Amino acid sequence: MIYSLRGKLIHKEIGLAVVECGGVGYGCKTSYNTVSRLGETGSEVTLFTHLAVRDDGIELFGFGDMQELNCFKQLISVSGVGPKAAIAILSDMTPEQFALIVASGDSKMITRTKGIGTKTAQRIVLELKDKISSEAFGGGSMTAGKASGAAVPSGDGSSVGEAMEALMVLGYSQGEIAPVLRQVDMSLSTQDIIKEVLRIMSSK
To answer: What's this model's pTM, rounded to 2 decimal places?
Structure first.
């Protein structure tokens, strides 16, 4: 499995970045958000990757950070959502925005992406939110439960709970999130809590 690529960016366009590693150019399908953050052609870049193997071919997808890659993996785990649709969604919103949409159950925001209908958007929110609730909390309360021995800090139950769910959509466990939440001002909005937790995590 190709976990990541680090090398010279030799070509980029909407939906595609080519990274040269050891004399081989790897073409990675990417979101608009990733392409827009890449440097100029000739600069050194790092992409986290996902290799999709299908009967009709092999495709390599590249992402600017692990949060976006985790969102992509979550999306393609939903019935009826393929890599093309997942990339389209992540081209229209950041991983943080997507995670918050799932946590708040706002499926209408996802229908703004071209080609994503109401039923598909509702399925994305339903399956991912239910998956997080059942796997991580066994149906328990977001703010009162425990996982891996880590208690969730108290505060505004709505904002803390939604922030916790959103961060789990990004691939973090409750055990990883809870200790960092203790360092964050619980009076902040859900989106600001998410941003602050991600900032602290990335600085470690």
So the answer is: 0.75
Three-state secondary structure call for residue 98: helix
| Residue 149 token pair | 């021995």
Instruction: List Cβ neighbours of 64 (8 Å cut-off, separation of 6 or more).
Output: 30, 33, 34, 37, 38, 47, 48
| Cβ(174)–Cβ(164) below 8 Å | yes
Domains with residue ranges and CATH for the chain:
4-64 (2.40.50.140), 67-203 (1.10.150.20)
| Segment 149-204, tens digit of pLDDT | 445 454 445 778 888 888 888 888 888 888 888 888 888 888 888 888 888 887 76
Residue with tokens 């070509």: 11
Encoded amino acid at 66, one letter:
M
C-alpha atoms less than 13 angstroms from C-alpha of 53 in its C-beta half-sphere: 2
Residue given tokens 């009709």 in the structure block = 56
Q: Which two tokens stand for residue 107?
A: 């499926």
Q: Classify burial at 32, counting beta carbons within 10 Å of its beta carbon; exposed 0-12, middle 13-18, buried 19 or more.
A: middle
DSSP annotation of 108: G
